[in-house]
Amino acid sequence: MGIHFDTSVEFAQLMDCEDELAMFKQQFYFPQHDNRDVIYFCGNSLGLQPKNVEAAINVELQTWRDIAIEGYFKGANPWMYYHEFITPSLAELVGANKNEVTVMNALTVNLHLMMLSFYRPNAQRYKIMMEAGAFPSDQYAVETQVKHYGFGPAEAIIEISPRDGEKIIREEDVLAAIAKHGGSLALVLFGGINYYTGQLFNIESITAAAHKAGAIAGWDLAHVTGNVPMQLHAWDVDFAVWCSYKYLNAGPGAAGGVFVHEKHASDNNTGRMAGWWGNDERIRFKMEKGFIAKPNASGWNVSTTQVFNMVALKASLELFDKAGIEKLRQKSIRLTGYLEFLLNKLTNLSFEIITPSSPVDRGAQLCLYFSEKGKEVHKKMIENGIVVDYREPGVIRVAPVPLYCSYQDVYRFYEIINTIV
After folding, report:
1. What residue ranges define each of the domains in the chain, with the CATH number in brackets?
2. Which of 227, 234, 184, 229 lies closest to 207, judged by CA?
3. pLDDT at 286
4. Distance (Å, rounded) from C-alpha 74 to C-alpha 84?
5. Below-50 pLDDT ranges, the chain
6. Percent helix, percent strand, percent coil in the chain, to nearest 5
């Protein structure tokens, strides 16, 4: 980005003064340690609470209290259409048309529902390709889906691993594997950013390769949405799922998101598990047999909109709308680059940054691999007011989220861990 970092606190102060997004830090609540805000670098696991959430919840509580059932049609935010108030902002974040995005359920439930629609194996095409070391929920979902159709995981699941001695999966190896197995591939399903290494995969090129091989391209974007801008529609992704409690700050267990490309979403013949909330609204209250899907992604909605599980997401997205995902990405590149620069100046700890160094291959997360004593170092960080998380084997994940983290947060982090032995 043309910035020459240095190790002085004055540099961090200057960068914060020049940061046009700095004011958003004041829109979040921080846990406290020794009567000051913690250094919160754990938004890749759970985002902080936006300060506008409490008022937003109170609006819906008052609607429920004052008009009860009429809240579905006459409330400040009529519950019948609550998910539709959220989808425009989500569509902007993931590069989709509004009719391609919906909010429902939770991440792994949505992954299963999408796979039931798009993983349609036959005797020739039955294999699923994914990255080795995917998040366990994805592994479990894929394993049980192939078993559901009578296939053994060992034969039906192809896992792409890093080369010997390496931590990162090479893109050329993914593309070569897709071409090699193309005749038997039914689905290519990767996590957009690997939770353990922080590697951002090339969604566009992998999707194109999957389609060239005749396979469906699906993505778990739990660590990408709200972190890195995307263009899911233009990249011709078939489906994607994500959670909203990480970078989207919607709270623990908040409703997940779904993208279905309009070429599928507008086709009522695209198979799915149906429910009342996915039925065409024009005839929903006729209460008749025969499911007729809404001609958009919300045709996959199964159950009534979880209003109180979506309120915080709606409130947080108001902040994203103001900040803009492109500006957040530019700050993220600078902030993560600054963190990497300072980490490389440390001499007291022995670790390896296994996240790719190129900004185009990562988001707002650096993964520090400790061959030994990683848990001890993590414990010391927590004791000193640094909130990060640890993943076996040996990785401490550090995520300076640009919406509420500052350059001085990064500098304080550097100062503190410089004293840890």
Report:
1. 9-51+324-417 (3.90.1150.10), 58-319 (3.40.640.10)
2. 234
3. 82
4. 15
5. 1
6. 45, 15, 40
